[in-house]
Design a protein that fits this description.
This protein has about 325 residues and is α+β, with helices and mostly antiparallel strands. Helix 4 (about 105-120) links the parallel strand 3 and strand 4. Helix 3 (about 65-80) runs parallel beside helix 4 and helix 5 packs across helix 6 (about 185-195). About 35% of the residues lie in helices and about 20% in strands. It folds into 2 domains: about 35-145, 60s Ribosomal Protein L30, Chain: A (2-Layer Sandwich), CATH 3.30.1330.10; about 160-310, Phosphoribosyl-aminoimidazole Synthetase, Chain A, domain 2 (Alpha-Beta Complex). The strands form 2 sheets. Strands 1, 2, 3, 4, 5 and 6 form a 6-stranded mixed sheet that branches. A 6-stranded mixed sheet has the order 8-10-7-11-9-12, with helices on both faces. The structure holds magnesium ion. The site of magnesium ion (MG) has 7 residues, from helix 3.
Amino acid sequence: MNRKPKRVMSDIGERQFLLEIANLVSNPVLGFNDDASAIQLSEDTILVINADMLVKQTDVLPGMTYNQIGRKAVTMSVSDIVAKGVNPLGCLASVAFPEDLEVESAKKIIEGIKDQCSEYNIQYLGGDLNEGIDIIVDAISFGTCSKESLIPRVGAEVGDILYTTGYFGLTSLGFQFLLGNINLNDELKHLALESVYNPKAKIQYLSLFQKIQVKICMDSSDGLFITLNDLSKLNGMGIEISKLPIHPNVSDYAKEWKQNPLELVFSGGEEFELVFAISPDKEHQLIKEAQKQNLELQRIGSFSDKFEGIKITDEEYRECEIPKGGYEHFSSFHS
Ligand SMILES: [Mg+2]
């Protein structure tokens, strides 16, 4: 008899597993390839909801406080609501704690959840409490919007311009530093650690998105490479990067230590920056409005039908090798 060998999760990784279960999940408004889900509540109201799970073993870095753990879980979920152009209204969190976790530490996690919700001006609505072998915080956040204001991941056209809400590369250095691989000067160490210990959803950009028609948007929680690659595939076009959104201090570091700047920019993850596209005729309005609201933007490139995948035309970095990495669960390999 020809028996199929049993596969375990690490044999296939997160992305392949998602492909295999896609037909079981219904996400009628946004589609399976979105981290947020949405259902139509009435003629003009859509409920947008996201669940995002923080597990200490994979999502918590050495030196992170319990308060920061609670805060990060909220950010992971809220970021996906914000990427839809939706104002989050509330957040629930189911938590699991090991039985030997100190009560004060457990309380600090809950306080962190509450603190981050307050900072985002949303309600913390409670959730389930359970016992587990690791600290787990599963945050669920939601908001409502009209059909017109919901920003999908699909719908870009040739020539549409891509922007990010900030620079990349600091989280890569933060991870490397905490895993003991590198030395950083005081300024860079502060910036890198702040980026991994206190990540924030870019909720302040919602007021900009309400003014400008944003065609597509995605948060960069899995890393810039995966984000761009997903947007390229979903929209059936190539993406030309004419200006790499590398943090200036990271750029200096890469030069000094001869590291591949693309690796630092593309493979970090958990920046929670938003990557979005607008039509070229909206650019003037976008820049004016962003200046008015004092919001930083990085113009990184555009969609093209001349090639597939991601192409770097930024003169400073075009010779660098594009890493294929990004974060994937259950897997030691990079997608
Ligand atoms: Mg998320």
